[in-house]
Automatic annotation (TrEMBL):
<dbReference type="Pfam" id="PF00063">
    <property type="entry name" value="Myosin_head"/>
</dbReference>
<feature type="coiled-coil region">
    <location>
        <begin position="621"/>
        <end position="815"/>
    </location>
</feature>
<feature type="domain" description="Myosin motor">
    <location>
        <begin position="1"/>
        <end position="476"/>
    </location>
</feature>
<keyword id="KW-0009">Actin-binding</keyword>
<keyword id="KW-0677">Repeat</keyword>
<feature type="region of interest" description="Actin-binding">
    <location>
        <begin position="357"/>
        <end position="379"/>
    </location>
</feature>
<dbReference type="GO" id="GO:0003779">
    <property type="term" value="F:actin binding"/>
</dbReference>
<comment type="similarity">
    <text>Belongs to the TRAFAC class myosin-kinesin ATPase superfamily. Myosin family.</text>
</comment>
<keyword id="KW-0505">Motor protein</keyword>
<keyword id="KW-0175">Coiled coil</keyword>
<feature type="domain" description="Dilute">
    <location>
        <begin position="1074"/>
        <end position="1356"/>
    </location>
</feature>
<dbReference type="GO" id="GO:0005516">
    <property type="term" value="F:calmodulin binding"/>
</dbReference>
<keyword id="KW-0518">Myosin</keyword>
<feature type="coiled-coil region">
    <location>
        <begin position="839"/>
        <end position="985"/>
    </location>
</feature>
<protein>
    <recommendedName>
        <fullName>Myosin motor domain-containing protein</fullName>
    </recommendedName>
</protein>
<keyword id="KW-0067">ATP-binding</keyword>
<dbReference type="GO" id="GO:0030048">
    <property type="term" value="P:actin filament-based movement"/>
</dbReference>
Amino acid sequence: MLCAAPQEDVDKYKLGSPRTFHYLNQSNCIELDGLDDSKEYLATKRAMEVVGINSDEQDAIFRIVAAVLHLGNIEFVKGEEDETDSSKPKDEKSHFHLKIAAELLMCDEQSLEDSFCKRVMVTRGDTITKSLDPNAATLSRDALAKIVYSRLFDWIVDKTNNSIGQDPDSNNLIGVLDIYGFESFKTNSFEQFCINLTNEKLQQHFNQHVFKMEQEEYTKEEIDWSYIEFVDNQDVLDLIEKKPGGIIALLDEACMFPRSTHETFAEKLYQTFKDNKRFSKPKLSRTDFTINHYAGDVTYQTDFFLDKNKDYVVPEHAALLSASKCSFVSGLFPPLPEETTKSTKFSSIAAQFKLQLQSLLETLNATEPHYIRCVKPNNLLKPGIFENNNVLQQLRCGGVMEAIRISCAGYPTRKNFDEFVQRFTILEPKILKACPDEMTACKRLLDRANLKDYQIGKTKVFLRAGQMAELDACRAEVLGRSANIIQRKIRTFICRKHYILLQLSAIELQRVARGHLAQHQYECMRREAASLKIQKDFRMHMSRNAYKTIYASAVYIQTGMRGMAARNDLRFRKRTQASIVIQDHYRGYSARIYFQRLKKSAIAAQCSWRRTLARRELRKLKMAAKESKALEAAKNNLEMQVKELTSCLETEKRMREAKTQENKKLQHALQEMQLQLQEIEEAKKQENEKLKHALQEKELQFQEIEEANKQENEKLQHALQEKELQFQEIEEANKQENEKLQHALQEMERQFQEIEEAKKQENEKLKHALQEKELQFQEIEEAKKQENEKLQLALQEMELQFQETKAALIQEREAAKKVDEQTPTTQENSVNVVDSELINKLTTENEQLKELVNSLEKKSIQEFPVNVTDNELINKLSSENEHLKELINSLEKKTIQEFPVNVTDNEVSSKLITENEHLKDQVNSLERKIDEAERKYEESNRVSDERMNQIIETESKMIEIKTNVQRLEEKLSDMETENQVLRQQALLSSSSRRMSGKLAPATTPPLENGHQASQGSVPAKTFGAEDKESVDALFKCVTKDLGFSEGKPVAAFTLYNCLLHWKSFEAEKTSIFDHLIQLIGSELEDPDNNACMAYWLSNTSSLFFHLQQCLRVPTTRKPPTPTSFFGRMTQGFRSSNSLSSNAFDVEHQVDAKYPALLFKQQLAAYVEKIYGIIRESFKKDLSPLLSSCSKDKTSNDNSQPSGSWISIIQCLNRYLKILKENYVPPVLVQKLFNQIFQYINMELFNSLLLHRECCTSKNGEYIKSGLAELELWCTEATEEYVGSSLDELKHTKQAVRFLVALQKDELSYDDLTNDLCPVLSSQQLYRICILYSDDDDNKQSVSTDVTTRLKLLMTDDADEDDKSFLLEDNTSHPIIVEEISTSALDKTIPKIKPPAELLENANFQFLHDYC
């Protein structure tokens, strides 16, 4: 339309180039080669006219398409309103496109803009207009464009279907279904997911249909057959579309949540289908998932699943377009029901696709389908090319291979009897004549072919796979033999005829050819004779000329060669003479150089030998320097040697003088031999000069030795000074550490004293209270005894009165009988008199009983206060009350027995009964009061039990504090022993150096780092060039990530084995530990790399454990025996631990020197440092997540955890995975997670007590769901790594239990403190009770009686503004590294294979022994 429409239409719809519209320029594909847009435009208009779309409808269609293009060019920016989220059209261009779109859609421009930039939300009683930000406005614009284009497309499809026409009353249907095949690309999105779901459904229908046809065929022919198995893909369909746990259901659920992303959707899929064999997660992606379809595995990318599945219909858009002035546009958007206009209508593309697919399958099931599989032979779209792998993949994806397998499992080949006989009669022609029917003929033919496992039906022959091929092979063999015979006869006839013709033709050709050859041969012989004569003459001429030229050339060459040989001979003689001269000079030079080298080497050898002799003398002098006499003797010897030398010089001088005198005398006497004497004198002078020169050289050597000794003495003194400075620094550091430890001990002792004083005060209070209770109990028992005595006396009196009344009644009866016998007329009067007397007596007795009961009540109230009760007292009182009840009941029974009915009056008896009931009620009230007293006594017992538990806890804390103090004392004693060893070594080395400085001027050269070897001690470990190379190679290898072997760090055990082999632990002085500590420190420069920190934590902790087990402190000093009880207790614990640690193999333990002990302390410090770095990094990652977890900010269901809790679980899983991958010891992992859960408990609990909005039942349900996720995580992480970390959340759990509890106003103090929140203190309970508020649910907090009681129980010094109810952060306390060795299970040295890099080195061949 844009490229080929008339100009008037383009101007009418305000269109332009396709590249100017946002919806068209995304693909950068505007024109196609070989496609004429104008022809396509005219063809499209003609097709619309053929289908039945008139010109007005076509105009409306093009107008709507143009409006959609203009909508895509509208851009939005942030508005200028006071609201944070608002938007408006970007510029005049956007306003222009908005206006054109409104004109084309025939709607209000402002309403269209408001539908993009605002959203109307209808609540229960009000309507709220919300402004949208630019991103939301852009999404609203795209949603309108999509829905308009979708409705237009649906209208065109419906119009086309209606124009084509179909008989609605027809019962038969012929349809063609052409769908895409199975798709598996590099990037598979929502479209491929829907297409592959369709293929799965159709594949299932195909398998069922083929199986059904096979079954019907076999049943119809009445043959024996078995069930044919085929691959059922129902599990894949359940994975995708099953409700409520299928992928489509989870996708719709994720689309309905506004904050859902494709990451959360993928995580939900991983959690839901982690155990499904058809579902898997790719290793290199966090949001992809893989489904095992029938045609293969397909990996889907979830990046655009949510956006492509959503199909929102905004009510404002629908209302705006339904009110359009264009009837076509308003017809596309019919008015919606009232309930859908109130909010945005959500519809799922996947759900619609699923319903349409279900409808399609219902249609297919109602028909008889036939399948056509189209196969593309090649991807080049060229004929004559057949790609086997591509075709096989298409057949497999289309299910053809599976259908063939199903068919081959049964009887795939079937033929009618007549067709079978007609085709295979050639195998045995005689059978057809001998058989009466075709069935028998088929059987005989099959038996003749030796076929088995076939079936004969009613009308067909059923063959297994391959049997038809065998029959065809036999048939082809018979036909081949017949064809061979026919071909042989025909070919013989044709060849004979052809041979006769060839023979005649050959004879004629031979005759003609022979004549022609004879003529040609004569002509050749004549020409050959002429050519021979010509060649002879020409060759003679050429040979003569060549001989002459060669002769002249040879003479010239000989002349030149002879001159050149003479010149070469002369040049060779000159070079030979020159080389002889050069060799002469060079040999003289080389001889001189060789002589000089020999001279230097001889001098060096002499110097070295003299140095060794001097060293031997020095050693001898050192051995002799222990006594002063030896020193004096040495000095005397030296003086004697000097004197001898001087005497020798004087004697030589004297001899020279004598010789000169003799010479002078001889000169006069022997003038004839003057020349000989001069020669002798010259020789003597030369010898004297040599001697003088030798003496001077000796003196110079002696001076050089003295200067070297002085320099070495100065170096040794400087080294001693440096060592003394180091010792002073170490002593100062030790003093500072001792002062710190003493200060800590003093503080702990002060705390312990305070705890003991508090405990003493509480014990005194308890003793005082117990004494008061004992006094009260004694008073109660005395009052009780008195009251019992009074009651017994009253009962005795009542029994006497009863006996008296009984005797009186008996007497009156006898008198009445006598009177009755004497005067029967006066009977009635006597009875009345007796009744009146009895009634009076009974009334008096009842009054006396009332008075007794009242007195008992008063005395019980006076003598037994409410707050003072005892179990034994209550039991006695209850027993006495029961005894009283029995007595009263016995009295009543006696009165009933003794007073018959005919003696009493009805009114009097009724009064007596009411009075007795009243007495019973009073007794019951007494029992109730006694029960209440029992209950109060039980409450006081519970309070005392709680106080006793607190006392026990304080005692346990005191024991822990004292054990920690004892451990610190042990550390201090160990440090003191090490310092003493160090001081002793320093004293020995300094004394030996001073002695050596006094003994002789020559001393031993210093060792590495200024250390001096001491006499009689273990030789220091020094490293030469080769050892230094080995150490460098070891450190270079250790800096790499060597990994783990059998759960053990390779680097740590390689270091341990090398140090053990080199005996570095037994060396007095060595620098390898300093280099190793520097190496570990350099590897920890990046504290944010948690994997690196975990790797070095595993290595350092493992190395420290083995050092703890392997090294012994070489000291014989016995530790002081503690005097306190707790000291003896901790010493016993230590002895038990030492016995358990001695279970380690004693053969591998070595006596560690000071460098090894210092290295162990530094290694322990690094373990604590690395652990602290990981813990603080863990807390740093959790801190922002916990701040968002303390309060529910969403309005969704609180029973489901939010993204913050999921992020916390992911953080925990990430750190646990890092620690597991690096095989960190489980005790460290448990300690880490214990402190992390303490930190989580502190943060959540303090946020609840500090913020009123957090103390609601809704927020409690939210936190409860998060805690449930943490419990689930702890169960999945196993107790080996988590331990009892979940118990650290007890404060938060009990606070949440209070928040979610129903009917809080009915909770009593006992229910609150015993059942709901037994761990929380009174301040914390009071705080959470006054902060609780939940107005939405009309829930009330606890009663005022409970809050007042909690307020009374709070301490006097804690006011309302005090923060004592908050939990303290105790997670930053350092760990005790010694727990690693006590909790480690493996006490032996594992056999770890060293790195291959070291094994290839010749200096590390000893590592093979540790494998």
